[in-house]
Amino acid sequence: MHIEIAEFGKMSQSGNSLLKLIQNNDLPILDLLVREAIQNSLDAGISVEGHNSVYVDIGIKDINVSNFAKHLDGITERLIEKFGDTPQKALYIEDANTTGLTGSLDFRNSPNGNIFKLIYGISMAQETPGAGGSWGLGKTVYFRVGIGLVVYYSHILNDNGQYEHRLAVTLVENEKLKETIIPKSNGKVPSGIAWWGQRVEPSSDETIPITDQDMIREILKSLSIEPYEVGRLGTKIIIPFINENQLLIKHEINPTETKPWEYNVADYIRVAMQRWYAPRLANEKYRYGKYLDGHVNGERLEKDDFLPLFIELQLMYNTAVFGGKSNRYFVNDIQIRNYFEHNKANNAGRVAYKKFTKKELDMLAPLNVPSPFTCVNQKNPKGEQNAPLIAYVRKPGMIVNYATDGEWCKGLVTTEDHEYLVAIFVPNSDTKLLNPDDDVFDLEAYLRKSEMADHTSWTDIIIKSKPLDIVDKIRSQVRRKIKASFEHKEEIKEKQSMNKLARNVGKMLLPPTGFGRRASSRNRAGGTRPNTPTIKGNRVNSFSIVSQKYLDSGVLEVHFQLKLAKNVRLFTIELFIASEGGKISATDWESEDSVGTPFPAQVKHISIPNKDEIFGNLQAVQSGRKVSHAFRIEKIDKAVECLGILELTCLDPHVQVEILMKQEGSEVNG
What we know:
By secondary structure, this protein is α+β, with helices and mostly antiparallel strands. It is built from 14 helices and 28 strands. It starts with a strand and ends with a strand.
């Protein structure tokens, strides 16, 4: 491929300046890469029909240095000399179900085409409604991952309706360094920027992407990359000559916690995808378009692969988007007056939140998952207690940032060491502004405009010479709602009677079978738990747990004590899921307005020894999704006090099960 060296002139960029354009020093380079690359792919999938997801795969490949370098005129010998003696790696980003790099090959005929914006232009903002970018600077992160060399390959439908392969190469380097890769020209000021492609004209040094399929296949093969198949459209960005050790940063945040993902680039990317795209990753309920079908090294990231914190964030996000009552989380509308066309209760959005225990986040042995602060690379500013952790996100589904102090958290109480307050704010993006301008007409556009080039914060802006404080009011309302909920809950707790039956069966633990994945089998250690709950008070009817143990099969065997009055003729022993907002029944759990999945706990067998003359039919009760979650039991007209055994299983390690007894026509006992 022919080399084109950019000339340095008036009002032009240099390689050194490009590398500093988005020099974010707060986020690790791999986080910046994941955020930018995935957002570009999601934006490119907005207008593509026939798919409900956007495919994105990020991973590592081997390089055949000599076979790759021979295609880059002007730097072939330099690359072989510098990298040819040792094994080299390339990082790739592949998407599909996207438009690809469309537009005329010659940018002068299509200055707004995708191909020019990504490869040849700079500071060209994304204008598609619902897109993430608004500055056009994020792509500069690609030049900082390796040595500044980036290969762009795309498969598109061109203007003639024909499939077309396109490939071009860019190099951006600091031209002020003593040893540079781009050859210097006598009498010319070095720019630090070069492209490789085919000549626009035989006598011209200007280049456009190559379309020769044979040459493209050769170049891709040298990078261990497969070309797109017929009918599959998308873009692959390959960044050769990466240094994996330099990309991996060992964070000093909570140094006592082990962070397995900081020892392998693929593992880090796997967590970074969850960290920034939990609301959209593998989320088929995502409301604002296509969900993210994420892969790492070709392997799909399923929800079962998520760290517990990011599963919860996705569920909270869905709850905030769709509204309605939740038995799992607190959900509050955020309303701001005098800025929007209407004063609906949720005109600014909703916040969902909950206090999670270490047990719920798999932080206890044997799983030992790191704390939420470590999972999101944030320091806990409160020391021995835990600061709140608040995420905020807009329509594209990328979490803008996580706040542990400052305006989002000011005045919120800290939690004790064993629990964590986690919240997510989701704006009502379609809310129209009362006094819009041409660029900012709704809340989504306002927040998009308020973000910095690296999209890591919101700040208020000026519209029509008038400064607004929408972001400030949102943060204030979020704080007030969270604070009020927990203050009210504490008041209720103080008024409750201390003579209450203990009833938690406890969370089922899984053995660790590898980082980032749920185990495939249950903890099978037997034994009886201490601190057996006892019956207190003088209730005529009661149900209490005596002991429990795991059988070799992984089933939990629960021994219980049952006391029933003479007039009780029919009663139910039922499983519930404990949550911050109360007990969740199988019906509520499976509702589309709630979790919407099959109830995760199941009763297998119940026996009441030597009581056949008192108890009649024992009937299993199934949920709407055919999960046996209770036993309905008949009793003769006689008082009884006896022991029984219930066997149950739980398919979700992140929930806490309760067993409760309810007599026909009465309240729950347990």
